[in-house]
Amino acid sequence: MKNKKLIYVLSIVIIIFIIGFSFLIYKSEQSEKNRIKKQIELDLVYNELDSISILLGDKILTISQLGGEIDSLIIIKENIEKEKKEFRSRAFTQINKLQGKVEGYKELLIAQDEEINKLKLINEQLYDENKDQKVEINTLNSTISEINKTKETLQVKVNYASRIELKNLEIFGISKNGRNYKNSFKNRLVNKIKIDIEIEENEIAKIEIKDIYLRVEKPDGNIMFDISKGSGSFIFENRELFYTIKREVLIDKLSKSLSIEYIKNEDFMIGNHTLILYTDSYIIGKKEFLVK
Known about the structure:
By secondary structure, the protein is of the alpha+beta class. The chain has helices at 2-65, 71-87, 95-161, and strands spanning 166-174, 180-182, 184-185, 192-199, 208-217, 232-236, 239-243, 245-251, 256-263, 271-278, 283-291.
């Protein structure tokens, strides 16, 4: 009888132990399930924070390139990164709070999409305006270029028309007793030559003092040259030329006459000589004379 009672008691104890142990196992499993569930929720929230941080970084770059304001967005991104660093150490009870922040950040991203669209629209309008301005500027530049070409053409014509024009050019051999031999003379009869120049009136000529260079070419092609009588050289069309005589002449739109004399220091060469009158940029005229 005692054995039966003992067996009964032990059976009850074992049953109670089994029930208690089963309950503990159940509670442990439920706790683990809850922990895993909350960990999954935490991971989801963390991943959302990470994705939002990346997207916000992209939008900051886009807004910056479009010329928008990004200072406040940079501060928000820094706060998100701080949230991520502190995230793992937070209690599970803060999930709802974090999820609320995540929703707020999502709304911020949507707002930035709207800002980006506005900035893109503004930039497109500016691009169209700039394109129109470029067309106008190109048209204006073309017009200015054409005006400058016309101006240059007119200036060339004016420069040409304002050149010194000869009305007459004569060469005389002068004897010691003052007798003149026009354009042809014997060497033994003359001791100098005289060049008479008549310049035409020119209303559009620039008023200035201009150098006139006289080159007397001998029959052998050499230049009549004597430094003691003022001979020298000048630059014409990028090359050096020698001249026989140089004179400064006041060009004042009016016609004028001048005479230039050259005393010989040696016999003139027999044959045709050529007198050429230059400025530093063009030939005024030329004339031949004969020495017999």
